Amino acid sequence: MAFIPTVEADKCEGCEECVDVCPVEVFEMEDEKSVVVNGDECLGCESCIEVCETDAITVEET
C-alpha cells in the first residue's frame, strides 16, 4: 500500500509544522511554502494533516 501526500500551495501559509512533524521528511520548505520532496517515503500517518491549520495537505491511499 502506498500513500500520496500533496500540498495545495495557495492554502499553505508556510508555518513549517508539517516539515517538523513528519517522521520521514516528506516535506521541505521552498519559496516559503511546504512542498513534497520525498512522497515515496510517506507512511500515511497523517500527522501532517493534523498539524495543518489551513487544510492544505491531503494524503491519498493507493
How is the secondary structure organized here?
Elements: E1 3-7, H1 17-21, E2 27-30, E3 33-36, H2 47-51, E4 57-61
Architecture, according to CATH?
A: 2-Layer Sandwich
Number of strands: 4
Structural class by helix and strand composition:
alpha+beta
What helical percentage do the residues reach?
Answer: 10-25%
Task: Please work out how many helical segments DSSP would assign.
Answer: 2
How far the N terminus sits from the C terminus, by CA atoms, comes to 6 Å
Low-confidence regions: none
Rg, Cα atoms, Å: 10 Å
Give the ordered list of helices and strands: EHEEHE
Envelope shape: globular
Strand content: 25-35%
What do the pLDDT scores average to? 98
Largest pleated sheet: 2 strands, antiparallel
Strand order of the largest sheet: 1-4
CATH fold-level label:
Alpha-Beta Plaits
CATH level-1 class? Alpha Beta
* The number of domains: 1
Give a written overview of the molecule.
This protein has 62 residues and is of the alpha+beta class. The protein has one domain: Alpha-Beta Plaits, CATH 3.30.70.20. The chain has two helices and four strands; from the N terminus they run βαββαβ. The protein has helices at 17-21, 47-51; strands at 3-7, 27-30, 33-36, 57-61. The chain has a two-stranded antiparallel sheet. Strands 2-3 form a two-stranded antiparallel ribbon. It is globular and about 30 Å long. The termini are close together. The mean pLDDT is 98.
